[in-house]
Design a protein that fits this description.
The complex is a heterodimer of chains A (about 375) and B (about 1000). Chain A has about 375 residues and is of the alpha+beta class. Chain A has 2 domains: about 35-170, OB fold (Dihydrolipoamide Acetyltransferase, E2P); about 175-375, no CATH class. Chain A is about 10% helix and about 25% strand. Chain A is built from 7 helices and 20 strands. Chain A has helices spanning about 1-15, 20-25, 45-50, 155-160, 255-265, 280-285, 335, and strands at about 60, 65-70, 85-90, 90-95, 110-115, 120-125, 135-140, 150, 160-165, 175, 200-205, 210, 215, 220-225, 235-240, 305-310, 315-320, 340-350, 355-360, 365. In chain A, the strands form 3 sheets. In chain A, strands 1, 2, 3, 4, 5, 6, 7, 8 and 9 form a 9-stranded mixed beta sheet that branches. Classes of the chains: A alpha+beta (about 375), B mainly beta (about 1000).
């Protein structure tokens, strides 16, 4: 009888998998090996792959096309978000990965291969009558709201974006110093100007720019009363622009935006688009809330464009995200008053035909003599 | 037959009497401690100087009689199947027959259960918002609790729907419920089944010798060596729903001639189970005790026990994930590291308990005991922590198909092609998909390798290390034959440190002690990010934490409790009356050990603190202008506590008993539910007040001719509960804290238990039904804060917490959308309200069982049916804010969608068990019990879960949507086999 019982028990224990006992007897886990870099051979350049795109018509690749290039951005300081740029000799391209803190997996300067099959190429920031934006690679967006969406799904990322050799010390590729003539026109794309989407340095920029209407522009930001409501509705928008913006930081964190709003310096700003000021002023609504708990204007991080011009007078915006870690850094007074000029290194972008420089980090902006700001 | 024996015994006694001619004697009744029902057939032995003189069996009414005893001191030893041995010292004087009235017997449970482990699940699931009650109720005589205690544990049945902290657990006369949460601390002695087997339990409003009782029963575990069943016992147990293997050995000496008793109990539980991968046990449990009976009047017991435990835990996921995996028992806590299973959430504890108990029994009518218990040690649970890196959890909502595509266009999720990719990576099976379906440890290490020393991912260990000192003194005095007084005093000093340490840097060199959630809002204000501001101010940078280093938060919870109580029982013939009173005081406060940058407070000189780097003032103030501090002592909250209780029972010959009880209880709020965010600051909840409970019960029991039927009705009103929930809200990029006050509950219902003998000898039928209505009433108040700010994010009533309205529908549109009726003022017309229920336990629970006992074999088959179990609610969805949506207008469709409470599907379960024991040479006993549960392999039984605490507020839409809820399921078919050997 005893024997039978023991037999039955050992039979049951035999059913137990070895895996379930692994954590029981494993005090220490061996450290995994570092991942080996992938080696692939691109079969098309970044400039050439943009040929698959025609304006307003995002294209989903069925061809087996592989582009390759070095990562030229980092999202660590937060000025880039959910995507990175890669660049080869022919141009730069944003890859819309769609995950946070990408720099942890995709190191600055690392060689990346993108197999574009099933991915979509499209443009962001184009506006008829004003000019082009940036051609990007992401996933399709059936809603049509944007031309591409984020790739996002882990298996989709891993099967299309491959990590090659890292650069020495995770160094970004060296920026190219551009002369005035190398700057893109509003009608250029990565196809026609190889500097678009690449890490470049622009030198000797001075603050403010006078627009086509003869008005001086310093900084620009767009606030929403409620970002959950229609962002295109005039009643939901507040444009802070012109010369009296009271913005003297590269961008505004939520707390700085909130402080500034409450200080009253924006109270006389109109709500609405420039041709539709029918919704009162900021000061009228900033404390009113639907349910009494939220103020009437949403406190949110604000991205800011600061207007600079080259020595030849070309407008160069420095666009900074309100989520970047350096957003609340003040712009030195001698830069704001025009007495000092700056150099800026960043990704050269077009937004509605205008040049926008997006920096990786605050030290990418220096005085024109190369010394750090302040 | 029994009568004949009694007759024969009486005959023998009379012969003895005739021979020696003394006239003294001892008479009494053997009764069950629970309910004082007679115990028939108990072996009663009378001893003098340890020599047995005579033995009789008790009659059907429990009575026994020894006659012909000389004057002098005697010892009565009473043994009965299913009860602990009882020794009583009696003096016979002046040749009278001494009537000792009652010998009360304490029932032991006969099934060797793994019940202690189901109670673990509670601790296990605390982190994820799950809460349930271990149903530890044993009462051999109560046909209801006898079944419910064990049979309903797998469904996580909560007695009368009460929160588990209302169940009082005493150890050696000391109240042991956790000082901070109120939870029953079963984990302290898990695995020590033999040492802790001997216990008294009462159900509902009943009290006992060491406690006045509350409204959800009392259990007093004796825990002294003399209460452990004597002999050697070994067992080996395997089960497929919890852990694979348990080995146990036990030795107890019983009371030796020299007055000493010894007991040792050792066990170990090892392995995983068939149902939840990643879950495993690696535990050792040890109990050792010695007790000395100095003379007949006093004894001293010393015992120490500990249950060092390591356990991998389970996590809840959404139904979408379970469906994709094709497995409702999917566990997102683990993944492969170098091909080996590793769980990220592991409980590790070592909490030794030291016990000293002194018993004084100067006379047979007076007993006094004093117990001192000290609990110390450490209690940790690990989890992944990360800084500025992607959420590593495999079932993160953005990795699921539903994040790319939802049918309803209101969600703005329209990418079917992307959803197909997400579905692909969850539904394909094979090694290359493990990293998507489970934690990808290899990736976490690789991220750290590349990060240049600073770990982006690490395993943290959260500690709740208690030092808990308790003193309890209890006395009992049989004032007259009919009146018994009891009373006592107990006090508790608890000092608990909450902190976390880095457990594993996962290939990195250090973890930086900053608050990553604060960084987003205060990027330019380094001081605000600091978890340890003082270190930063001194060193100019945040501390680099290495493995074993404290970081994050570190604070003390201090609790002081004192309580005195008394109860009186008086018997007037068939009527028994009991009254009990208690009064006490409870204080608690928080003491921050580090200064957090977000709530810097004032410096030692009472000045504001300024960050030297940014020049910004770090000191922050609440809405009343008071400084918010993280370091130092908070205000002390003090609450008076007390209770008053009356009960009566009346026996009618023929085995009928009626009883009625009522009680009022004033309890202090728990430390864990009293601070807005104890992790970060000293701020107490506003409006904190006593929990007030009024409870009544009525019961009828019939106990005769093998029938045992009990019917109980109860009604309980619990008012002013508070609840604090903290969780990471990635829409706020911050920890957010919900604090709810003024939660009121009503519990009403009936319980029926019946044991019915069948015509075949050894065959019986038992039936149990619990039908309750446990609901919320009233309108609680909610305050939402975030850790990043001193501001209140949202405050107000929670109007749809207790119920939500049903609106009158007057028709439908073409697409089937209902059109709701409105009155002349435009208000929607309500036609009624839908109640919301106290969650996570079936409000209808029934069982029908057939038992057969013959020749040391036992068989049981039972069928169970459970219904009306509800999902735990989050207060956010019951606010006007959530029901109003993006346009700020509350509509009937939104209320009915957002505020309604999910009801679980009913469950039908079939279980059976079989057992047998053999005696070998009348000295050794070997036996087994085998239990097969959930024979129909029903894998769709939800045992609990919780709602998400955030809203989908898709851009430009008028209404909000819920995030998916997460659920826990009961395992499918599973077995337990126990083989034991005793001598």
């Amino acid at each position: 009888m005893k024997k039978n019982i023991i037999l039955a028990l050992s039979a049951i224990l035999a059913f137990a998998s070895c895996e379930e006992f692994q954590p029981v007897f494993t005090g220490e886990y061996d450290k995994p090996q570092p991942q080996e870099p992938v080696v692939m051979t691109p079969n098309i350049t970044i400039a050439d792959i943009t040929s698959y795109y025609t304006k307003g018509k995002p294209y989903t690749f069925v061809e087996n096309l592989i582009i390759g290039g070095q990562i030229s951005t980092t999202d660590q300081p937060g000025n880039f978000y959910k995507s990175f740029y890669i660049q080869d000799e022919t141009g730069g391209m944003e890859i819309k990965i769609g995950r946070n803190a990408l720099y942890n997996d995709y190191r600055p300067g690392q060689t990346i291969y993108v197999n574009c099959t099933d991915l979509t190429i499209g443009q962001y920031g184009q506006k008829d009558g004003q000019g082009n934006g940036m051609i990007q690679i992401g996933f399709s967006d059936p809603t049509g709201e944007y031309e591409t969406s984020y790739i996002e799904v882990p298996v989709l990322i891993d099967s299309h974006v491959f990590k090659g050799q890292r650069s020495e010390g995770d160094q970004l590729p060296a920026p190219v110093v551009l002369s005035e003539s190398q700057l893109p026109k509003s009608t250029d794309t990565q196809k026609t100007n190889k500097n678009i989407g690449r890490l470049v340095t622009l030198k000797d920029l001075s603050y403010t720019w006078v627009d086509g209407y003869g008005e001086t522009q310093t900084a620009f930001t767009l606030l929403y009363l409620n970002s959950q409501q229609n962002k295109k509705a005039s009643s939901n928008r507040i444009f802070i622009s012109g010369t009296d913006t009271h913005i003297n930081t590269w961008a505004m964190s939520k707390s700085l935006m909130s402080e500034t709003l409450e200080s009253g310096v924006w109270d006389s700003v109109n709500i609405g688009n420039a041709n539709d000021y029918n919704y009162g002023k900021v000061g009228d609504v900033k404390y009113k809330g639907e349910d009494g708990s939220y103020p009437g204007i949403e406190r949110a991080a604000a991205s800011v464009s600061h207007y600079f011009k080259t020595s030849a007078g070309t407008c160069v915006q420095i666009r900074t995200s309100g989520f970047s870690k350096f957003c609340d850094t003040e712009i030195p007074a001698d830069v704001l008053n025009g007495s000092k000029h700056i150099n800026v290194t960043g990704i050269l972008c077009l937004y509605q035909g205008k040049i926008q420089m997006v920096v990786n980090n605050i030290d990418d902006i220096t005085y024109a003599d190369g010394t750090p700001l302040k | 037959m029994k009568r004949l024996i009694t007759l024969f015994a009486a005959l023998c006694a009379s012969v003895v009497m005739f021979a020696q001619d003394p006239t003294g004697g001892i008479t009494g009744k053997v009764v069950n401690r629970q309910g004082r029902t007679p115990v028939e057939g108990a072996q009663v032995t009378v001893l003098k100087a340890s020599v047995a003189l005579d033995a009789v069996e008790s009659a059907s009414d429990g009575s026994f009689l020894f006659e012909g005893l000389e004057d002098g001191s005697y010892q009565l030893r009473v043994n009965a199947e299913g009860f602990l041995q009882q020794d009583i010292f009696v003096k016979v004087e002046k040749g009278f027959v001494r009537d000792i009235m009652f010998v009360t017997m304490t029932a032991v449970t006969t099934l060797d259960t793994t019940l202690d482990d189901s109670s673990f699940a509670e601790q296990d699931l605390l982190d994820t918002g799950y809460s349930d009650s271990p149903t530890i109720l044993f009462d051999a005589n109560d046909p209801f609790t006898n079944v419910v205690g064990y049979g309903f544990s797998s469904i996580r049945y909560k007695n009368r729907g009460y929160n588990s902290e209302t169940q009082q657990v005493y150890l050696a006369g000391v109240p042991m419920n956790d000082a901070l949460t109120g939870y029953s601390p079963y984990s302290l002695w898990s695995g020590l089944n033999e040492a802790m087997r001997s216990k008294d339990t009462s159900n509902g409003l009943a009290g006992m010798d060491v406690a006045p009782g509350s409204f959800n029963g009392v259990t007093n575990i004796h825990a002294v060596p003399s209460s452990v069943r004597p002999g050697w016992r070994f067992s080996i147990l395997s089960n497929s729903a919890m852990y694979r293997l348990r080995l146990m050995a036990n030795y107890a000496s019983g009371v030796l001639d020299n007055g000493w008793s010894y007991a040792v109990n050792v066990s170990s539980r090892l392995g995983g189970n068939d149902w939840v991968k990643g879950v495993y046990y690696k535990t050792l449990s040890v109990y050792a005790g010695a007790e000395k009976s100095f003379d007949d009047y006093d004894k001293l017991a010393l015992a120490v026990f500990a249950a060092p435990t390591e356990r991998g835990s389970q996590n809840a996921s959404t139904q979408e994930v379970y469906d994709l995996m094709g497995d409702n028992m999917y566990n997102s806590n683990w993944g492969y590291q170098n091909g080996k299973v590793r769980n990220s959430r592991v409980k590790r504890s070592f909490e030794p308990v030291f016990l000293a108990k002194y018993d004084l029994t100067p006379s047979e009518d007076f007993a006094l005991s004093a117990s001192l218990i000290f609990r110390t040690g450490r209690n940790g649970s690990t989890a992944l922590d990360w800084y500025d890196a992607a959420d590593p959890r495999p079932d993160y909502y953005r990795s699921l198909p539903s994040y790319a595509f939802m049918e309803d266009s209101d969600y703005n999720r329209q990418n079917e092609a992307k959803a197909a990719w997400a579905t692909f990576c969850w539904t394909e099976r094979g090694e290359e998909f493990n990293k998507y379906q489970h934690l990808d440890w290899d990736r976490l290490y690789n991220v750290n390798y590349m990060a240049g020393g600073r770990s982006k991912y690490a395993v943290e260990e959260r500690h709740i290390d208690q030092n808990d000192l308790n003193l309890a003194v209890n006395a009992k005095w049989n004032m007259t034959n009919n009146i018994t007084l009891r009373g006592g005093f107990n006090g508790k000093i608890n000092r608990t440190e909450y902190y976390k340490v880095i457990d594993d840097l996962l290939g990195g060199e250090y973890f930086l002690n900053v608050d990553s959630f604060a960084e987003r809002d205060f990027a330019a204000n380094q001081g605000k990010l600091q978890n340890d501001l003082d270190y930063y101010l001194e060193h100019g940078e945040a501390e680099k934490i290495t493995e074993g280093g404290k970081y994050g938060y570190d604070y003390l919870a201090q609790v002081r409790k004192a309580n005195a109580w008394t109860s009186a029982t008086a018997r007037f013939g068939a009527l028994t009356l009991n009254a009990a009173l208690s009064a006490g005081v409870e204080s608690f406060w928080r003491e921050g050990l580090v200064r957090k940058g977000l709530f810097a407070g004032l410096d030692d000189n009472g000045r504001e603190i300024v960050d030297p780097a940014s020049g910004k003032v770090l000191t922050s103030y609440d809405s009343r202008g008071n400084v918010i501090t993280s370091k130092g002592k908070s205000a002390v909250s003090t609450f008076g506590t007390g209770s008053a209780k009356l009960s009566a029972s009346y026996d009618i010959p023929g085995g009928h008993r009626f009883s009625a009880s009522a009680g009022y209880f004033l309890d202090a709020p728990k430390f864990s539910q009293s601070f807005i965010s104890a992790r970060t600051r000293n701020s107490l909840l506003e409006g904190l007040t006593n929990v007030k409970t009024l409870s009544t019960e009525l019961s009828y029991q019939y106990f005769n001719n093998g029938y045992n039927i009990k019917l109980t009705g109860y009604y309980t009103a619990i008012n002013d509960l508070s609840k604090v929930m903290s969780f990471y809200d990635d829409s706020q990029n911050s920890f957010t804290n919900f604090a709810m006050t003024g939660i009121n509950q009503r519990h009403a219902g009936i319980e029926l238990g019946a044991k019915i003998p069948l015509p075949v000898s050894g065959l019986s039928l038992s039936a149990v039904a619990a039908i309750g209505e446990h609901i919320y009433v009233g309108t609680p108040h909610m305050v939402q804060t975030v850790d990043n700010s001193s501001q209140i994010v949202r405050e107000g009533d929670v109007p749809y917490w207790s119920s939500h309205p049903v609106y009158e529908v007057v028709g439908t549109t073409e697409d089937g959308t209902p059109i709701y009726n409105q009155d002349v003022d435009g208000n929607f017309v309500e036609t009624g309200r839908v109640k919301h229920y106290v969650p996570s336990s079936p409000q209808l629970a029934t069982e029908l069982a057939l038992n057969y006992n013959v020749n040391y074999w036992f068989f049981e088959v039972n069928a169970q049916y459970f219904d009306r179990s509800y999902l735990d609610m989050n207060p956010l969805y019951r606010t006007d804010f959530a029901c109003a949506g993006g346009d700020g207008i509350v509509t009937p469709a939104e209320v009915e969608y957002m505020a309604s409470q999910e009801k679980f599907a009913p469950a039908f379960l079939l279980n059976c068990s079989i057992g047998k024991s053999w005696y070998i040479r009348r000295q050794y006993q070997i036996g087994f019990s085998f239990e097969a549960k959930n024979l129909l392999n029903n894998t769709g039984v939800r045992t609990g879960g919780y709602e998400a605490t955030r809203l989908i507020s898709s851009y430009g839409k008028d209404r909000y949507y819920r995030f998916d809820s997460k659920y826990f399921y009961m395992p499918g078919a599973n077995y337990m086999l126990n083989i034991y050997f005793r001598f």
